[in-house]
Amino acid sequence: MASSRTKHVEPSAKKQPDRTGSTLAKALAPEDIRRGDIVTPLDEIAELPSFFWCADATVLPYDQPVRIRFVPSGGGVPLKVKRVCLPFVLLKHPKGERRTVDVRKYRLAQLGKAYARAAWKACKRAHAKPDSRL
Description:
By secondary structure, the protein is mostly beta strands. It contains one helix and seven strands. The protein has one domain (26-128). Strands 1, 2, 3, 4, 5, 6 and 7 form a seven-stranded antiparallel sheet that branches.
């Protein structure tokens, strides 16, 4: 006679952990930035007056700013969040330098823990050695 009881079925293959070491940087909203996070700039916003384009006044008002989003040259460099006072964030570079960024102009991304740790150590080592090419 058939049983009406449900059977527990074991999966045939257990889920293997990701061995590629790949992670994704997570874009952060300004209110999600916390002290101690390791972040990097994803993109920067520049505002330029519309008259730089010599456009027709019917397309854009003469005095309206145009926002342009671009990838900053320092993207991927790990920066440690020291303090947050929105819209400003105090960041520490692996060299020890500190700078303040305005999150209205920069979008920050949180780096994965393993990547952040490795990148921080690599940047610190690279800046600790004197440049022998000079």
